[in-house]
Backbone:
């Protein structure tokens, strides 16, 4: 049992370090996409991944990157897509939110609140469009520094 | 009692609605009236096609004949698609597109909400995921309907024309044929007829705020559920299926 737990922890560390293809400053663990790592009966590793959006083109890239990373670390690996419970922005870690803001994307805020500008920190911002450059982002603008910025949509 | 064949056919209807509407909406990519709208419509199309993929996968597994999502999406003849006629309705202009989107999003929101209770756990999972995405589509489309209906004389006229052209297709969404009845009885898919009242209320609310008249929901044009399509469908499929016809079995 001791060795199997170690294997699981090792595999988890490898999978958790895989960067998100759209926002490479964040890992899939930061985004809450990586739900768990499981050791199958045949000894292989199954990484459980929750897609942010069902049509997200990055889903396949992420699954491939996780499998590859685990294989390179010596594991027999596959991934499983977990739809239920559905991914939510609440699963983004504190660390993830910090990295996201540093990368120039405003992290999600509760409904009814406006995001702070990730460039200058001003709270006076306005929405340009509810849809942005990827499925998970909306387009906002700071009315203080006048820079447009991406906002990670609350889902 | 719903058979595996029933479940497959029911899932196919749902998947076809999403694929065909997703294909229609994607036609706006690069052509929308403004950049923000181009992104919005492309994202909505992507969400719809994402839901379609999950539904085709589930349908293929249910059928158990080894057909995957691509085979179901690309390798059927027109009569084998069972989408609502409204989904294939040509984009026409932005008014038609956005009103069609509002109607669909309103319907889908109610549908997915009810499907959360499905006895088919995989479908309930897709419903939970899609429901969150559709909330954005609904809000976006409803905002536009109000803005254009209550906008300039020209935008109002365009919305009036869209409403007159699309209204005859609305009843089809709530038709409950024998298949839909069996699936509803088995609590696998929602009963479409039961969604009509809530849809009518949502529609009346938004159209009224948009200064548009609210005509009754009629079932004057239907047939999509049994594979009888409008002329527009063949043209849509010609584009959708082009790559698979030109390069059979091609993957990328």
Residues:
């Amino acid at each position: 049992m001791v060795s199997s737990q170690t294997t699981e922890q090792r595999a988890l560390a490898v999978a958790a370090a895989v960067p998100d293809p759209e926002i490479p400053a964040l890992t899939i663990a930061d985004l809450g996409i990586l739900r768990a790592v499981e050791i199958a009966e045949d000894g292989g590793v199954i990484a459980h991944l929750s897609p942010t959006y069902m049509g997200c083109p990055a889903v396949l890239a992420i699954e491939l990157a996780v499998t590859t990373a685990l294989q390179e670390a010596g594991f027999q690996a596959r991934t499983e897509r977990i739809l239920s419970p559905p991914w939510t922005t609440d699963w983004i870690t504190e660390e993830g939110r910090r990295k996201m803001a540093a990368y120039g994307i405003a992290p999600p805020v509760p409904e009814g609140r406006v995001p702070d500008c990730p460039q200058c920190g001003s709270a006076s911002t306005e929405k340009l469009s509810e849809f942005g450059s990827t499925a998970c982002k909306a387009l906002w603008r700071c009315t203080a520094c006048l820079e447009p910025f991406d906002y990670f949509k609350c889902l | 009692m719903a058979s595996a064949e029933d479940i497959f056919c029911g899932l196919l209807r749902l998947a076809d609605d999403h694929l065909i509407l997703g294909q229609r909406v994607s036609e706006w990519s690069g052509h929308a009236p403004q950049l923000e709208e181009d992104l919005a419509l492309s994202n909505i199309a992507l969400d719809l096609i994402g839901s379609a993929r999950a539904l085709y996968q589930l349908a293929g597994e249910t059928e158990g004949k080894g057909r995957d999502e691509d085979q179901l999406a690309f390798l059927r003849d027109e009569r084998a698609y069972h989408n609502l006629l409204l989904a294939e309705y040509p984009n026409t202009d932005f008014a038609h597109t956005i009103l069609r989107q509002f109607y669909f999003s309103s319907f889908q929101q109610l549908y997915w909400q009810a499907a959360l209770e499905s006895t088919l756990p995989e479908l309930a999972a897709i419903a939970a995921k899609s429901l969150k995405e559709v909330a954005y589509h609904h809000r976006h489309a409803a905002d536009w309907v109000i803005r254009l209906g209550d906008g300039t004389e020209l935008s109002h006229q365009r919305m009036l024309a869209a409403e007159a052209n699309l209204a005859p297709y609305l009843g089809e969404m709530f038709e409950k044929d024998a298949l839909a009845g069996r699936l509803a009885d088995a609590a696998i898919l929602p009963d479409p007829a039961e969604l009509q009242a809530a849809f009518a209320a949502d529609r009346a609310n938004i159209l009224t705020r948009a200064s548009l008249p609210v005509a009754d929901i009629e079932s004057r044009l239907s047939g999509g559920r049994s594979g009888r399509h409008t002329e527009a469908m063949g043209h849509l499929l010609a584009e959708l299926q082009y790559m698979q016809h030109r390069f059979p079995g091609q993957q990328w």
Observations:
- Chain B has one domain: 4-246.
